[in-house]
Amino acid sequence: MPGVPYHTKTFYAQSDVLQNAFCMEIASWTYRELCAAAGLGEKEREPFIQNRDVLVYPGGWQSWSAGWELAADETLPRSVLLLRDLIKLTNRDGDAPKRGEIVGHFLMYLRSGDMYLCVASRTWTGGASGAPLPPVTFRINRKKQRVVAELFCPGKRWTAHEVMAELRFFACEGCFNLKDTLVAVYRAETSVSAGASALDFLTRTKPGQAARAGGKNPIGGYESWYNHYTNINEKLILEDLESLPATDNLIKRIFLDKGKPAVFQIDDGWEQRVGQWEIDEKKFPRGLRFLAEKIERQGLTPGLWIAPFIVTRKSKIFSEKYEWVLKDKTGKPVVAGFNHLWDGRYYCLDLSRDDALAYIQGLIDRMIDWGFRYIKIDFLYAGFLFGDFARGGSPYEHYERACALLTKRAASADADAPVAFLGCGLPLGASFRHFPLSRIGADAREEWDWKLVKLLGHVGRPSAYINLLDTIGRSFFDGVIYCNDPDVVFMRTRNCKLTENEKELIALVNFLLAGQIMTSDDPLHLEPADMQLAKRMSALYAALADDEYGAVRLDRDVFRLVSRSGKTTGVINLSNRPHPLREPLMNRQFLVDRRKNGAYAPHSISIQTGTSP
Ligand code: 9PG
Fold this sequence. Notes:
CATH superfamily of the largest domain: Aldolase class I
Bound molecules: 4-nitrophenyl alpha-D-galactopyranoside
Oligomer: single chain
Number of domains: 3
Structural class: alpha+beta
């Protein structure tokens, strides 16, 4: 589908100059001017200017940043209490929102009813001599109806007439038009909308067969994080591996039984320390090559996690190669964040250094050499921090080079053993060219919300609720610039506080609005009710596979599910209250019916389908 026409504005450097300031303003518009830039006539502008119910989609900096629309009375916390370094897991270095301001990144839109007004920044100049463009930040002041666009490129040496930014403006009706127009906007920067070939082997049944030929055909499998967390070892992994094809579970039903490929990915916990990427031999006495071979022999794609840009203080690199650790101007190591499961604060490597890059590339090569073919590369945002780089330059230039190196061996490397990368914790705009398969939201969790971390004000916290908000809010990326990884679904009862409705909600939202179905359930300990749920979900997946879906916010935490064909509709209620049935019910059959006393139940999804009345 062609989408609507868009208008492009290109910004050029005026002279040879070294960018010293942290951020550089390139343009500012009133809402009225934005409408004009998108080609809207006087009349069509009115809703964006007069309507108090205009919603703003700021577009978060990275996977774990808030990825949802904000109504006029909604804001995002500007800081995190107590554990201050947690803010680095959501906000870009130096993006510090001022009072009354919402800070957005990469791509933003305003929405009034069904009309979207979008500003999308290109990330690559295109052409044979293509180069990355610095990330664009939007400072949105809703009261003043003003948007300021800035570039984040400290340390960049501009030459006169060099392209600094290219913005594309358009207005369109409905979420599928938004997607279709973004396909056109980003066509030169991604192959995802054309069916990203580097990921084909993760979905195709037979070699040579087309991958995502129409409809839903998710990538998926097992990963170890959301059950065992860092407490993994050979015994537990083998137990999960052996029971996956041997018990009745969701992954077996939707992938293995259908002859589709499935991933088996070992997450954080195999290494001696974060930053010290040697195998912990107490936990994995026979090493990881042994496990990769076993996984491969079971007909699964072996996967492994790593966070190559970061180091903790106690890791050997930190003391032995201290010169590789990025420092600020005063010589102090740059803090990249805080994680209570490691030794607290962690730091990042100076990616301007060839030796540090060669080391990182060596880590990936070794994982591939061990036999892993689905590499989860995490905490990538740390490669975008600013510091006193050994070789000068700007974070975006170093990030670009590092990502290109990391993913050099994607798919084509070896036709018999193709390799794919899953990006995670990554700046969304700067990464899709290298990581077509990526996490687009906060971590899932085996309970609805994580109350304690919520109190700190951390919007990127692991939480089923936040994770769903992101999966819904970023669903328009799926199949456009990313194959969206929404994180895991849960079927299990053991070690899980989610209710049946919540598990169903997550399983359906992930299937309908994203591109990957993973689980961390230990297949050996599923109960009959869990298997029943998996059976029901796989039947629903089959029934709903032939369409494309979107979601539109109706109210705070309440969304309408829509489908491209118009055949399927639904209501997603993430709120803690029943949502009254305001709209007249379509004359259609309920595939999933979570109405109770004339309202949609809290934490539920209801789906209606059939031909249009
Ligand atoms: C391994 C994990 C898993 C997971 C990743 C990432 O904002 N936070 O507090 C936060 C905590 C953990 C986290 C992400 C964000 O987890 O997303 O899938 O691989 O690392 O350590």
